[in-house]
């Protein structure tokens, strides 16, 4: 039986694979002369963030103020919160955090957020550094490239408590790329959109900060980028496998699960459902990749059930254990208080997910 | 501003609405002479389970052994774990739990599980009560109705440490019902399938235990049912709204969220993404119901972003707060360590989600 000391479902993380993934993306950034600022949303854990810094990362990225507070408590002192923050409760916390760490950056795309952040900067007695987010195709947050982004950035000068330190984007369409050529074309368009704003502002000092793992693989081919903020690369997942950016062996984090039911010949059920694997969809359908058994389809999830479907060649037994690579590893890890570090098939350590539950 | 003392995203639960929902389903069960054994997976919280027991529930249902342990620690002593359990670690915990509570039931659909549960019963020196699960159409776990279920139940007599106490189903297709007639037809077929097995076994004492909220609304019209295990009814959600089983005002649990970006006229972004609302889909599309604004569509979720789309008649402001009813409330609550009880728009208490994170 796999990992008899662990009960299922749980998350195991192969630390040898993690170290290889961390070194690989760091080396790509180093070769391109780009700062790496890994997004901690994937692991939400000081253990892994420390590994990333020790490998050469320039700082870390967080999605939430609460995650940044957890990381600051663990000693990290150069943090980008890549998220627009607003509201009096958050501003009080942000001010306290800014007093605690060496460098704190926040992203924004509205004057409402600029105004409250400026108030924090004024109370601090120094300008808070901000990144303006540019919408390079995801159509989520961010100002439209060109005139809108340019005018927005110029308008930020009216807010005395903040200072524009960079332009930031999050690669949306790259996740839909069908080929390496697609991916590269998306990435180059993304960077070009930000460089045009930077040039229009006449601010050669501005960082050009790009998000997501796909573009982190391409920083050597996208001149102009100065900072890369990948998250998923550290663990890998089925989405990266689908893009050809990770093989099964590169996926360090797996949900360890047990077959609990096998009522008919072509269907079995495991104890990892949407409360373990998360419900994120995948363009090829299915809800995860069963390690070593590509012929088994994770056809459906309910909360605590993963329904596996397969043909006559597959034999599974109630009580058997499997490893499943989630479609999207970040929300899966977020469902666990801790993950288990393994090497060579042995559990070597238990790792707390400090940022989990820090929803605000 | 809504609930200024709370930071977002968080879950608020209107306790007046909860009490009404609890009374309503309890009254339906009482009128039909059916035992109510609410599924705690929705709230995972002793606070709400206690409310259900005080209203007349006969016991509780849990999805996981870890949830049952959390409930036992909070004083509950009549627990069904509606899940097949296997593996030495779980058997040791199950034995300890069985010694602790007055009554413990476990469901199963395989002889592999029967064997290990029988071992627990033998170590306890008394038979462990089990429910055999019948697959009434969900095609997840459960034996096929008719000969397969009948033969399976007869075979359970070979295991001296367990005693068959009932037949259990989980209503699958009811979630897809297009009308009340559909719903009733599905429910009656489900019950008929189990009654045929009960009759075939010649065991008039067997419980007929049905799952899910839709059938809990119909227990008065499905004679033969002796136990009902609804979960979602206590909070309500967009799925129940879609089935016509809850109005907006019946949905007690909402994710309180803040508009953080509004980059273009027809799109805004809130700070509730898939790590707050969960990613469960809805047959009508969309990822949640914005309270009081049915014209606003929760079009897409990423981890920390909910993308709202709307027409020219809608005005939203960065910093404004909204309440969103999740598609599926159970996985949403599972993303928070605590929820906030409110009455008349005021926060009255903080409620710990004890079962969250008890994944095994």
In short:
2 copies of one chain form a homodimer. Chain A folds into 2 domains: 16-234, Alanine racemase (TIM Barrel), CATH 3.20.20; 246-352, Beta Barrel (Lyase, Ornithine Decarboxylase, Chain A, domain 1).
Account of the 3D structure:
The structure is a homodimer of 360-residue chains. Chain A has 360 residues and is an alpha/beta fold. Chain A folds into two domains: 16-234, TIM Barrel (Alpha-Beta Barrel); 246-352, D-serine dehydratase-like domain (Lyase, Ornithine Decarboxylase, Chain A, domain 1, Beta Barrel), CATH 2.40.37.20. Chain A contains eleven helices and 17 strands. Chain A has helices at 15-32, 46-54, 65-73, 88-100, 111-124, 147-155, 180-201, 213-216, 238-242, 274-277, 329-333, and strands spanning 10-14, 35-36, 60-62, 78-81, 103-108, 128-133, 162-169, 207-211, 227-229, 253-264, 267-270, 288-290, 297-301, 306-309, 321-326, 338-343, 346-352. In chain A, strands 1, 10, 11, 12, 13, 14, 15, 16 and 17 form a nine-stranded mixed sheet that branches. An eight-stranded parallel sheet of chain A has the order 2-9-8-7-6-5-4-3. In chain A, α3 packs parallel to α4 (88-100) and α6 packs across α7 (180-201). Chain A is globular, with a radius of gyration of 21 Å. Chain A starts with 9 loop residues before the first strand and ends in an 8-residue tail after the last strand. The interface between A and B is large, with 61 and 62 residues.
How do the strands and helices of this protein lay out in sequence?
The structure is a homodimer.
Chain A: E1 10-14, H1 15-32, E2 35-36, H2 46-54, E3 60-62, H3 65-73, E4 78-81, H4 88-100, E5 103-108, H5 111-124, E6 128-133, H6 147-155, E7 162-169, H7 180-201, E8 207-211, H8 213-216, E9 227-229, H9 238-242, E10 253-264, E11 267-270, H10 274-277, E12 288-290, E13 297-301, E14 306-309, E15 321-326, H11 329-333, E16 338-343, E17 346-352
Parallel strand pairs in A: 1-16, 2-9, 3-4, 4-5, 5-6, 6-7, 7-8, 8-9
Antiparallel strand pairs in A: 1-10, 10-11, 10-15, 11-14, 12-15, 13-14, 16-17
Helix pairs in contact in A: 3-4, 4-5, 6-7
